[in-house]
Amino acid sequence: MKLNQIIKSVFATTALLSSAAAVHAAEVEVLHYWTSGGEAKSVAELKKIMEAKGVTWKDFAVAGGAGENATTALKARVIAGSPPTAAQIKGPSIQEWGQEGVLANIDAAATAGKWDSLLPKVVSNTMKYQGHYVAAPVNVHRVNWLWINPEVLKKAGAKVPTTWPEFFDAADKIQKAGFIAVAQGGQPWQDATVFETVALGVGGADFYNKALVKLDPATLTGPTMIKTFDTLGKIKGYIDKDAPGRDWNLATAMVINGKAGMQFMGDWAKGEFTAAGKQPGKDFLCAPAPGTAKSYTYNIDSIAMFKVKNPDSQKAQLTLATAIMSPEFQEVFNLNKGSIPVRPDIPRTKFDSCAIESMDDMAASSKAGTLEPSMAHGMAVSSAVQGAMFDVVSKFMHSNMTSQAAAQALAKAAKTQ
């Protein structure tokens, strides 16, 4: 996101207009892109909690799995001088919006809730701009999962893969048995999700960090990156021809319904399985993607607060931030969405085996130094660099681009300002 510099001046000159706009007392307008089955169910719970506290919830849902449409809508609102009370923003984008001077300080809620002592440092640092909390963390998603239909696996005579040779063996067997081996939606962010997972599995956490977090030119163009693209190119052969443009949850539905055997996707996919009444370990399997069992790529959803003039809206923002971090919401939201709570003190009793594995693996990866931010999900690099990388990966996925050319193009994309 490279915001137009006129935002500052427009925001300043129209702030009075926005404060005079029709804002009801104790109302929050929340812009988000949680629109699939499991996600919508989760948002409904937050709405309930807010309304129980006497705050009216004004829903501003913008469909689009990775939030590109929501970001466009948010930019338009901020430029017009009428930002929503809160919006779903994450990672480096929080810093970018903070630099524009449009985010609200919610330290009061954080201090009262003892967020600094509750949250892992990797989470709290992401929620702050210049040392002050401006966003409330909702959850932690693990991105490097492989979702599997065990019935399809059984019919194909395949086993759960832990290495890339095992993965391609399973994919071959699934395809020969008449199923789609890999359910995928040919959208830029989905292609990038598979790409970064393959990079982690092929090169390990240190390689991933040098290439997709630190953007080291030598690593981006080196032999391990070429091997990453070679592996990604091989995966292409197991994706069906109808994949372009398919939404992620429709790809997940293919695994749920037994049309496809496997899907690379973050654990928000689990929300779709559970919303369909499926049980982990029985109706579906979650496994770390091949080669990534000892690493963890994370995506933290968060709600950032925007500067508003109405005192009631300001109070409602603190109420919203407090509600998001409440044990009640952390539990119910994450049970619905498939993610894990940001608070480590939430009881595990209601969480399934996939969530518990995610909690344990996150803790182990954090200790081992293999906990990495997701490039594909806005946690690792600026939105400008991310967008340029998306373009390279998408071109590779949907053309005859060579691995060497893709690696060179990726290094060039990393220099995007």
How would you describe the overall organization of this protein?
By secondary structure, the chain is an alpha/beta fold. It contains 19 helices and 14 strands. It has helices at about 5-20, 35-50, 70-80, 90-100, 105-115, 115-120, 120-125, 150-155, 165-175, 190-215, 215-220, 225-235, 250-255, 270-275, 310-325, 325-335, 355-370, 385-395, 405-415, and strands spanning about 25-30, 55-60, 85-90, 130, 130-135, 135, 140, 145-150, 180, 260-265, 285-290, 295-300, 300-305, 370-375. Strand 1 (about 25-30), helix 2 and strand 2 (about 55-60) form a beta-alpha-beta unit. Helix 12 (about 225-235) crosses helix 19 (about 405-415). It is found in: Periplasm. Part of a binding-protein-dependent transport system for a sugar. Belongs to the bacterial solute-binding protein 1 family.
